[in-house]
Specification:
Layout (H helix, E strand, L loop, with lengths): L2 H13 L2 H20 L2 H22 L2 H9 L8 H26 L1 H9 L4 H26 L3 H17 L11 H22 L14 H34 L3 H14 L4 H17 L4 H31 L12 H4 L1 H9 L5 H4 L3 H26 L1 H26 L6 H21 L3 H36 L1
Helix pairs in contact: 1-12, 2-8, 2-12, 3-5, 3-7, 3-9, 3-10, 3-11, 4-5, 4-7, 4-10, 5-7, 7-8, 7-9, 8-9, 10-11, 10-17, 10-18, 11-18, 12-15, 13-19, 13-20, 15-18, 17-18, 19-20
């Protein structure tokens, strides 16, 4: 296949990019609203609620969502996609209900004090309901991706985006306290989940799970369970800093760090949109399209470096909109961005772990990454606050990146040029770390940007020109 096939991959991935592009745009638009309307301590609690909802969702699924993805195209005997969907939904819902009930019965004040900074039984119940709604959206996203249904996927994710990250801000007109906002967030997310479950996924709901052969059930869980700790550790990597800050009672720092993470996660628009299409494509074509996959790896790595440069160049525009209480995060938001950056890079180098069914390797990588994160958080946060949290997150992201690189390539070769990849990885890391100093002065920033651009052009300028000419020729032919 020619380079036009690479263009085809980008074109197909773009069909799934509407919700992620919208999410990034709305996140940036809402930054001035959030940073001026909410005190940092209140926004810290709201963001922590969102993070813990995702934790409970991830824990309750036990990795069954990953097994659903893995076996969707190749169903296990006696465990078709309807049964896999319903089984995953039932297990996760029961788990969340049991956990919520036990917490509310045995230690409501302790847990609520940690999450909200005060006793709040209603808040704990809301957290359980919110987590169940997130389970629904997670499984729905698997269905629409595996069906290669960009329209359905986009509708679902936009619904989740509006309820989860946008409309809750309307509660600030009533009160800038966290409680009205998390109540509205939960109510809207549950309503959206029910609507999409009854419309888009009704055909996947079945009560005939007792007919699943035990051997098939064991195979399904054998794949799922080893991925669960890895998924939890991934959550720890992205959220442990907020938990540690909250543990010290520094909810204001939680809010500032969370806003920096929101800004950095605008980068997530690329890996989120790309992985939605890329994951099913890999599982379907890893045998017959390996050369195309390698070309995609090279181009995507270069694109990542260019996006990093764009953020460094435009950071002052973003931070002009940020409230004074949150502005201190400019010095470290690019280090935080290493986390979504590694998410994108791993998409093209780490699938060998899953294709070989060696999911325990993912656990080793995420375990090492999370351990580094926790250790650095404990060491640095008491003295350096948000900056310490950013350094811990950045260090864990690098462990995740290089662990996925080693284990992924051991089992499936997807790197086109190891030398070019190594140079670009070093460039990307240097750009993110260098911004700690470069954010303070224009001359330093220009030098950093020039060095990054020069490296990209030297390595991939010719390829980019060739790709552009090919796409133009294709369009003329049409």
């Amino acid at each position: 296949m020619g380079l036009s096939s690479v263009g085809g991959i980008f074109k197909e991935a773009a069909k799934y990019s509407v919700p992620t592009a919208l999410s990034a745009a709305l996140s940036l638009v809402l930054i001035p609203v959030i940073s001026h309307a909410y005190p940092a301590s209140e926004y810290g609690v709201i963001n922590l609620f969102y993070s813990l909802g995702n934790l409970l969702m991830t824990f309750a699924l036990f990795g069954l969502d990953n097994a659903f993805i893995r076996f969707y195209q190749e169903p296990i005997n006696g465990l078709d996609n309807r049964k896999a969907f319903s089984l995953s939904m039932l297990v996760a819902t029961l788990c969340i209900v049991i956990v919520t009930f036990c917490v509310c019965l045995m230690a409501p004040d302790v847990v609520a004090g940690y999450v909200f900074g005060e006793s709040n039984l209603v808040g704990l119940v809301l957290l359980g309901a919110y987590s169940i709604a997130l389970v629904v959206f997670r499984l729905l996203s698997v269905v629409t991706r595996q069906e290669f249904n960009p329209k359905g996927y986009n509708f679902q994710q936009i619904g989740l985006l509006l309820s989860n990250k946008v409309l809750y801000v309307l509660a600030a007109f009533v009160s800038t306290s966290y409680m009205p906002s998390i109540t509205l967030m939960t109510a809207l997310t549950v309503i959206m989940a029910v609507i999409f479950l009854l419309t888009h996924a009704r055909k996947y709901i079945t009560a005939r799970m007792i007919e699943i052969p035990k051997k098939s059930l064991r195979k399904f869980f054998a794949f799922a369970l080893p991925t669960m700790p890895a998924a939890l550790l991934m959550w720890i990597n992205s959220s442990i800093a907020k938990l540690v800050l909250a543990g010290y009672g520094r909810f204001e720092d939680v809010g500032v760090f969370a806003l920096a993470f929101t800004i950095a996660n605008a980068f997530q628009v690329v890996p989120a949109a790309f992985s939605v299409y890329w994951s099913p494509f890999i599982y379907r074509h890893y045998n017959d399209e390996q050369d195309l996959i390698k070309r995609m790896q090279g181009l995507l790595t270069a694109l990542t470096a260019l996006l990093v440069i764009v953020f460094i160049a435009g950071q002052d525009i973003i931070y002009l909109l940020v409230g004074n209480e949150y502005a201190q995060s400019q010095s470290y938001f690019m280090i935080v961005m290493l986390f979504p950056i590694q998410t994108l890079l791993v998409e093209t180098i780490g699938y060998g772990i899953y294709l070989s069914n060696k999911t325990y390797l993912r656990l080793v990588t995420t375990g090492a990454s999370a351990a580094v994160n926790v250790l650095f958080c404990m060491m640095l946060i008491p003295a350096y606050g948000g900056m310490g949290a950013a350094v811990a997150l950045g260090a864990s992201a690098l462990i995740m990146l290089f662990g996925s690189l080693v284990f992924g390539q051991m089992n499936y070769r997807s790197i086109e040029s190891p030398i070019k990849t190594a140079i670009l990885y070093v460039t990307i890391i240097a750009l993110c770390i260098g911004n700690v100093v470069a954010c303070e002065g224009i001359a330093l920033r220009i030098s950093l940007i020039a060095a990054g651009l020069g490296t990209c052009v030297a390595l991939y300028g010719k390829r980019a020109a060739e790709f552009t000419r090919t796409r133009l020729d294709v369009r003329k032919g049409e």
